[in-house]
Design goal:
By secondary structure, this protein is mainly alpha-helical. The protein is built from 44 helices and 10 strands. Helix 35 links the parallel strand 7 and strand 8.
């Protein structure tokens, strides 16, 4: 076969045409003397070309031929050419599995296992595999026999003799036979232990479900009972030794490698629990302590080895518990946790290659099917299968899943599992990652029948099927709920009302009857609106179910839809703007405050679809808008109605941005910097109230005096308003100051100023659909007994003569918010020496502040309130942090410019930078202040009314937890974390405030 120099040989060309990627190497291998009898045989080349990796198949074949004894070498080659079944099976395996090629090179006689091709060989069961493994008396012999069985199984798989489900079932049967053989070896090694106990091995997971991978952990639990009169403790110890030995036989690495790990971590108490328990101990645990996920694992329980009667007793005893799991108290919370895809532990660079855990992966299908089984299997025994594909088919037959959806999911699952099988078969390693090397991808694609452009076709098909899974994963839960209340095509099976109610209950809906009524109203009919809503609702229902109050979310959506459903832009927004629908679902189901704002003016939903819609509008944008609208109004009442409408719209924008940032969406995770969220809300609300006050001031003066009132007027923000730290439920703390214009009588100016204040307060509290803005002027000189508004000179006289230390402290947060800028600036010049006294506070003033704080703690805490959970006055709450910072400002503000701010967190940071507070202590105070502020915001968002402590209602408390980032079922952790954070802040406060 010597080729002319510079020209390719005909063999080289033929090899290239048959799919070899390195024809030169392949040609040299065929030139080897041992291959002489077959090197020119076209049948061999055709068979090699049909393999997933012809190069790999030829290399492995050469190794196998070279490993044969001289007498057998010709027999192998002759049989290979003469017997098509052997040729297809052997070369198919060698081209798909490097590991099995290595096995054949070490055990060259095992190729004969592929020669027989009778009916009995096509679908072997546990008995046939046990016969194949029966001669193994030690772990090494067991591994060799296991690989020999696996060789035949893989051959049937790669040749298409069996489909995916049959392959997975055979792998599970082979695992069952292997566990039995391993237990026999262990019992033979310890006959005394074997005599003292009855031991049963229960398979869970894919082995229990009869759908095992090529290389997968085999999940098991062990149950044992005494035998031969042995004491229970002795029997359990003996059974534990046998079980441990059996696990090592399968798992340990030897000269022949390992089989697969045997994993017993799904047992009661996991790794911390005993390896082996009696049946009564298992049942006691499951009845009292087990979590929902443990019953989900037991769904696939199957007795596979050891004492068959004991194993069956175990399965019979736990099975009723599995199908009653949906009735357990914490089932809904557990489901909400379990439904969140756990991909955080996957390296970022591997997420897109994950077949099992990645988006649109195998876990999505398996979990969805198992959850539907748990919900509906309690009343429908036909769903109680351990096999994912069998259960999916049963769900479709029963109407629990749409037939088209089930068919598409079945196809996608089979393709993804086939990919997983082929990836694992190559080196017999446990992996769920799609390879990156083009050669590996080419082999993988060809093994799945993709021959024209294997790499491109593989990626296309993989992404297509993953997209189907992603799309159907949520739809699988919710589409049948719509079908239950809609007209179905002939032949379709409807989910019964009872079954729909069961599913809604399992997904967290407290009133499934009302929920079904809402679904019927939203999805029925032939209008364009109903058609779009039928498309959206499956996904929306899933987002509602992720919240603490799904019922409120669905009811809110119905109300918004009733109000806007005939508006073309609304339907277009939900259909075309991907983020809008999810944002709407998050807002509607997170509490009462934001939905109430939205339902008063549903057109504000457009904010949720605008890419920049959730960014707060600053004061420089809002004040001109409001003042211009006031100028166009016919009356003061109309003017302030416009201003309050803008305020309502912006309150919705701010609260929606806060909720979506706190909850996160599928595209954007929850914002990790919660302090930034608090600052954003505080600044947005401050800007909004300042602009609203400017509009109200303009409305109050315009009707009577036009643009030239007899006195200049300024509104000074105080408290949280002046500190830019407003919560949703905060009043606007203010001082009013005026200054008569030149030539105007002081009494006339005073009457005008008081008229303006009264009119502003009246207008802002008029009963309308918009939330009122309550003005609180109690921090003025002389408090409630003093005049509502003073001239600048009156303030100066009062502060010079009568001012108390608490009033100087209150002025730390004073900042002009509306009215005459020059007057506001002169007021700040007046009070700066009071709030930042030269040389700091005297000892008497410090003692007075401390006395006031102690008095407030003892007198102002509401009766019955838990001081460890009160966000304002409680231990380590807002008051503790703010008084500590304010004392530092009054003592050192004269010397440290950074302390001259109305904002708590800015002042705290400046104190740390100036060395007045250690960094760690400053961080402790900051964390407590941010957390307490977040809780106050959460309470208002959830309940729709302000509160300074955590709600007592369980659902409201859970909603606060969700806003704060806690998963369902972790309310206790939230309260513990709050107490821990504030306890540390209180300790810092006592050192800095009382002791310093």
């Amino acid at each position: 076969m010597t080729a002319v120099p510079g020209r390719r040989s005909s063999t080289f060309t033929r090899l290239l045409r048959h799919g070899f990627t390195d024809p030169g190497v392949a040609e040299r291998l065929l030139e080897l003397p041992d291959m002489a009898p077959v090197r020119a045989d076209s049948v061999l080349l055709d068979a090699l070309g049909a393999a997933a990796d012809p190069d790999l198949a030829l290399r492995a074949l050469v190794r196998l031929v070279e490993a044969q004894p001289d007498a057998d070498r010709r027999t192998l080659l002759d049989t290979l050419i003469a017997a098509k079944p052997l040729r297809d099976r052997l070369l198919g395996v060698l081209g798909a599995s490097e590991a099995l090629g290595d096995h054949l090179a070490r055990h060259p006689g095992d190729w004969r296992a592929l020669v027989t091709y009778e009916a009995a060989d096509l679908h072997p069961g546990v008995e046939e595999f046990e016969e194949c493994l029966g001669g193994a008396e030690d772990p090494i012999a067991l591994r060799i026999a296991y690989r020999r069985c696996l060789l035949s199984l893989a051959a049937r798989d790669v040749c298409g003799t069996v489909d995916l489900a049959e392959t997975a079932a055979e792998l599970a049967d082979l695992a069952t036979a292997t566990l039995r053989a391993a237990l026999t070896i262990a019992r033979t090694a310890a006959p005394g232990d074997a005599a003292r106990c009855r031991l049963a091995v229960i398979a869970l997971g894919k082995c229990g479900g009869h759908e095992l991978n090529y290389v997968s952990d085999v999940d098991v639990v062990f149950v044992a009972e005494p035998a031969g009169g042995a004491e229970e403790n002795d029997a359990i110890q003996a059974a534990t030794r046998l079980a441990s030995h059996m696990m090592r036989i399968c798992s340990e690495t030897t000269v022949e490698g390992t089989i697969w790990p045997v994993d017993a971590n799904l047992r009661p108490e996991g790794r911390n629990g005993p390896l082996v328990r009696t049946l009564s101990s298992h049942l006691a645990y499951y009845q009292r302590w087990a979590k929902t996920w443990e019953f989900q694992a037991l769904l696939k329980a199957r007795a596979v080895a050891g004492d068959p009667a004991l194993g069956q007793s175990y399965v019979d005893a736990v099975s009723p518990m599995v199908w009653q799991a949906a009735e357990r108290e914490n089932f809904v919370a557990d489901v909400q946790k379990m439904r969140r895809r756990v991909i955080d532990n996957i390296p970022v660079d591997e997420v897109d290659r994950e077949l099992k855990l990645g988006p649109g992966g195998l876990r999505d299908v398996e979990f969805a099917v198992q959850l539907l089984q748990l919900v509906h299997g309690r009343s429908d025994p036909s769903l109680r299968s351990g096999s994912t594909l069998e259960a999916l088919a049963a769900l479709a037959r029963g109407g629990y899943v749409g037939r088209v959806d089930a068919a598409q999911l079945d196809e996608a699952y089979r393709f993804l599992r086939s990919m997983e099988h082929r990836i694992q078969l190559y080196r017999l390693r446990r992996t769920h990652l799609v390879p990156e090397d083009p050669a590996d991808l080419r082999r993988l694609g060809r093994s799945l029948g993709l021959r024209r452009d294997p790499v491109h076709e593989l990626h296309r098909e993989w992404r297509r099927h993953a997209a189907v899974v992603r799309r159907l994963h949520e739809k699988l839960f919710y589409r049948p709920l719509l079908d239950a209340v809609a007209q179905l095509a002939p032949g379709e099976t409807r989910l019964s009302t009872a079954a729909a109610g069961q599913r809604l209950e399992a997904l967290g809906y407290a009133d499934p009857t009302s929920a079904l009524r809402h679904l019927e109203a939203l999805a029925s009919g032939v209008s364009r609106k109903a058609a779009i809503q039928r498309t959206l609702l499956p996904v929306l229902l899933g987002w509602f179910a992720d919240s603490a109050d799904p019922d409120a979310g669905l009811l809110g959506f119905r109300k918004v839809s009733d109000a806007l459903g005939k508006t073309p832009w609304y339907l277009r927004l939900l259909r075309d703007e991907g983020a809008a629908a999810e944002n709407l679902a998050r807002v509607l189901s997170a509490g009462r405050f934001a939905p109430d704002l939205l339902l008063r003016a549903p057109e504000a939903v457009a904010i949720l679809g605008d890419p920049g819609g959730l960014r707060p509008r600053g004061r420089d944008h809002l004040e001109p808008e409001i003042v211009a609208a006031v100028g166009r109004a016919q009356s003061a009442e109309d003017a302030v109605a416009v201003a309050r409408a803008v305020r309502r719209r912006e309150l919705f924008r701010t609260s929606a941005a806060d909720l979506i940032g706190s909850y996160g969406t599928e595209e954007n995770p929850a914002q990790s910097d919660t302090a930034a969220l608090v600052d954003q809300v505080g600044q947005a609300l401050t800007d909004l109230n300042a602009a609203t006050l400017a509009g109200a001031l303009r409305a109050a003066t315009r009707e009577r005096w036009g643009d030239d009132p007899p006195t200049r007027f300024a509104v000074i923000g105080m408290g949280r308003f002046g500190g830019h730290e407003l919560n949703y439920g905060s009043d606007a703390d203010v001082l009013f100051v005026h200054e008569p214009r030149e030539g105007v009588d002081e009494q006339e100016a005073a009457r005008a100023a008081n008229t303006v204040v009264s009119e502003m307060r009246r207008l802002l509290q008029l009963p309308t659909a918009d939330p009122p803005l309550l003005i609180d002027a109690d921090l003025r000189p002389e408090g409630k007994n003093g005049p509502m508004v003073r001239t600048l000179s009156s303030y100066e006289a009062y502060y010079r003569r009568w001012s108390l230390v608490w009033e100087s402290q209150a002025l730390l947060r004073a900042e002009p918010m509306a009215g005459d800028p020059g007057l506001g600036a002169r007021f700040i010049e007046l009070i700066d020496p009071l709030r930042y006294p030269m040389e700091g506070l005297g000892d008497g003033a410090v003692r007075e502040i401390r006395r006031l704080k102690a008095r407030m703690e003892s007198e102002r805490m509401p009766r019955g309130a838990d001081p460890t959970l009160h966000t304002k006055l409680g231990r380590g709450g807002l008051s503790d942090v703010e008084w500590t910072v304010q004392l530092i400002q009054m003592r050192h503000g004269w010397a440290e410019p950074g302390l001259r701010t109305t904002r708590t967190r800015v002042a705290l940071s400046a104190a740390r930078a100036a060395g007045l507070i250690p960094t760690e202590e400053a961080e402790i105070l900051d964390d407590a202040w941010v957390l307490a502020s977040r809780v106050r915001n959460a309470v208002m968002l959830v309940r729709g009314r302000a509160g300074d402590t955590f709600p007592s209602d369980g659902r409201e408390l859970a909603a606060v937890g969700r806003y704060l980032g806690y998963e369902p079922g972790h309310v206790g952790d939230m309260l513990d974390d709050y107490r821990r954070t504030t306890r540390r802040a209180r300790a810092v406060m006592e050192t800095l405030f009382y002791d310093a």
